[in-house]
Amino acid sequence: MPQLSKDSITRYPILFYELNMKILDVMQKEAIIDDLKSQTKKGILEEMVAPLANITGRDHKDLVRVLMDRERLGSTGIGGGIGIPHGKIKDLESLVLGFGLSRKGVDFEAIDGEPTHIFFILITPENSTGLHLKLLARISRILKNDHFKERLQNATDRDEIFDIIKEEDEDF
Q: Which phi and psi angles does 80 have, rounded to 5°?
């Protein structure tokens, strides 16, 4: 990636932010659930949406509906124990990201047919396609690291998950 000068950063702060966006720039610690209980796709989404509804002030049911509508287009269970449910909602001010860990694993209709344990959930404003795709790509790339996934699965609480994501995100 080419280096940006201080002048470029000052003149194009949005571009700089998009190029260097970190996962924790958009994910609050409160949006991390360290032990998802549900055993169904809809149940997982309902659990994960709860803190996001509080953060955004949006209706819980609306957020679940948007995510379920997206799931009907094709499962966001990408295999390898990972799910990245995502959707867009009208009049949302900014991206919101959450994390969930299912210790037992759940049938999320993943492409490999295996149980899903690690979830990143992303809800974005309707008009944020570029930023939305960049964040999805970053999450997908970071999850290719098997050691990172193993550390997440073995984490004992929200604080440890946050620290693991922070460490990996900074190194990435």
A: 65, 20
Give the model confidence (pLDDT) of 35-87 as tens digits.
999 999 999 999 999 999 999 999 999 999 999 999 999 999 999 999 999 99
> Dihedrals φ, ψ of 31, to 5°?
-90, 10
Per-residue DSSP letters for 2-40? Answer: PPPPHHHHHH-HHHHHHHH--GGGTEEEEEEESS----S
Question: What are the catalytic residues?
Answer: 86
116 - beta bridge partners?
106
Strands 116-125 and 77-79: unpaired
Q: What are the structural domains of the chain?
A: 28-171 (3.40.930.10)
Backbone angles phi, psi at 4, to 5 degrees: -100, 140
Please give the structure tokens belonging to residue 84. Answer: 């990245």
Q: What is the pTM of this model?
A: 0.87
